[in-house]
Design brief:
By secondary structure, this protein is of the alpha/beta class. The protein is built from 13 helices and twelve strands. The protein has a seven-stranded mixed β-sheet, sandwiched between helices. The chain has a three-stranded antiparallel β-sheet with strand order 10-12-11, with helices on one face. Helix 6 links the parallel strand 2 and strand 3. The structure holds pyridoxal-5'-phosphate. The site of pyridoxal-5'-phosphate has 13 residues, from helix 5. Pyridoxal-5'-phosphate binds next to helix 5.
């Protein structure tokens, strides 16, 4: 019924208005006597005429069609659709922050500069790296920033390496990044445990390889256990280790990627650090690097000198600017507020709960859905439709049926290494009741597939 909402152009009636102004006590003048005729619109044919309540109800109804985290469970794998505390939104809207002009002189923006400087420090601590740029606007943008820095480093030594190694369990953006950075992408096949083995990397690693891009945890939700050993192999031949850290929600306070030999990593603030996402809104993909790559960071770099924060543009080796000004400040602000309110213990606990929730869900569903890699997962788990194949029910049908039950479906048909994947990421912010509700529904759907497969095929 709600979805029968007509267009606003189909509503209202002649002469209806959303305002009432006091009567004018001046002489009326025709608009054409004041405004040049070429600037005047002839008429407004079909322009809707509505009262205030018509307009409010129309847009309120439209807003209710949206399914968001505030309406229900949102287990979209690889996206970390966790609840983001509203207090961080409030802080981002404080006028001192929200109205600060990007050209405000440094002396008058010390608070904002300090906040960005300190957030860089927090992220360096969490990832185990030395320096951070907050400039990239998204995860993929952070990847490009990182790989361009690697390229600049190598080129400064007159080294024109041509290839980047990318495992088949990497995120698709890793392939795009290496291609856009003009590298030839070489795929590394994951092993029977769903991770990459050092031997496979050693086979491909040579002096032509600029870097390996490893997503950790990978897109199967599995921890790349051999990363440290792989990093050694790559370093021995003069290559760099890029880590796609968009899945950091599984690792905070537990693993420091820098300790595993990672040279450069990006982080998705809009996944792990409290910026709602999914509608294409602003995000942030800071990059963290080890010391040797620091000269190549985008400008400006925020520096602290005797208690004063300054923007330094005078960095001869910098790859330049990746984005206007300093990045998406509102997102940076929310991440800062989130980290301070969680504290280091809180962040660690969040990751522990994210991993526990995913394992709970995986264990409870694995009798009903085929689990291609039956081993402990990190923050997400991947099933397939193999058990349902004999009823001619597919992953797509299962996802559609979940909509009937009022759930946002998980990620489907990704990652590509698994045929007809169903990738579920519950996150740490869901209660046991909400997990159980989803699990019971998934079990009910598995039974329906057996007993009434048409129901699923016709859903929603
Ligand atoms: C989400 C994600 C990305 C891409 O991040 P964007 O902000 O969408 O560009 C990259 N890698 C992994 C592993 C991701 O989950």
């Amino acid at each position: 019924l709600i979805q029968d909402e007509p267009l606003i152009f189909e509503q209202g009636g002649e002469g209806r208005k959303g305002y009432s102004l006091p009567r004018w006590d001046l002489e009326e003048v025709e608009a054409k006597n004041l405004i040049p005729s070429h600037l005047l619109r002839e008429d407004l044919e079909g322009f809707p005429q509505l009262s205030e309540i018509d307009v409010v109800r129309h847009f309120t109804r439209l807003s209710q069609w949206n399914y968001g985290l505030d309406s229900g469970f949102y287990p979209l794998g690889s996206c970390t659709m966790k609840y983001n505390p509203k207090v961080n939104e409030e802080i981002a809207r404080m006028s001192g922050f929200a109205n600060l002009h990007p050209y405000t002189p440094e002396d008058l923006a010390q608070g904002a500069l300090r906040l960005m400087y300190e957030l860089g420090g927090f992220l360096a601590e969490i990832t185990g790296m030395d320096h951070v740029s907050l400039q990239p606007a998204a995860g993929a943008h952070g990847e490009l920033t990182g790989i361009r820095m690697v390229k600049a480093f190598l080129q400064a030594r007159g080294n024109g390496r041509k290839k980047v190694l990318v495992p088949d369990t990497a995120h698709g953006t890793n392939c795009s990044t290496s291609t856009i950075a003009s590298y030839q992408m070489v795929e590394i096949k994951s092993n029977e445990n769903g991770i990459i083995s050092p031997e496979k990397v050693a086979e491909q690693m040579d002096e032509e390889v600029a870097a390996i891009m490893v997503t950790n945890p990978n897109t199967l939700g599995l921890f790349e256990e051999h990363l440290a050993e792989i990093a050694e192999i790559v370093h021995r031949k003069g290559g760099f280790v890029y880590c796609d850290g968009a899945n950091l929600n599984a690792l905070m306070g537990i693993v420091k990627l820098g300790d595993l030999g990672v040279d450069v990593v990006h982080i998705n603030l809009h996944k792990t650090f409290s910026t709602p996402h999914g509608g294409g809104g602003p995000g942030a993909g800071p990059v963290a690097v080890k010391k040797e790559l620091a000269p190549y960071l985008p400008v400006p770099v925020i520096e602290k000198d005797r208690g004063i924060y300054r923007l330094n543009d005078d960095r001869p080796h910098s790859i330049g600017k990746m984005r206007a000004f300093y990045g998406n400040f509102g997102v940076i602000l929310k991440a800062y507020a989130y980290i301070l309110s969680m504290g280091s213990e809180g962040l660690k606990r969040a990751s522990e709960m994210a991993v526990l929730n995913a394992n709970y869900l995986m264990k409870r569903l694995k009798d009903y859905y085929h689990l291609p890699y039956d081993r402990p997962c990190m923050h997400e788990c991947v099933f397939t439709d193999l058990f349902q194949e004999k009823y001619h029910v597919s992953t797509l049908d299962i996802a559609k049926r979940l909509i009937d039950y009022g759930y946002h479906p998980p990620t489907i048909y990704f990652p590509l290494v698994v045929k007809a994947a169903l990738m579920i990421e519950p996150t740490e912010t869901e209660s046991k009741e909400s997990l159980d509700g989803f699990i019971e529904t998934m079990i009910a759907i598995a039974k329906e597939a057996e007993e009434d497969p048409d129901l699923l095929r016709q859903a929603p």
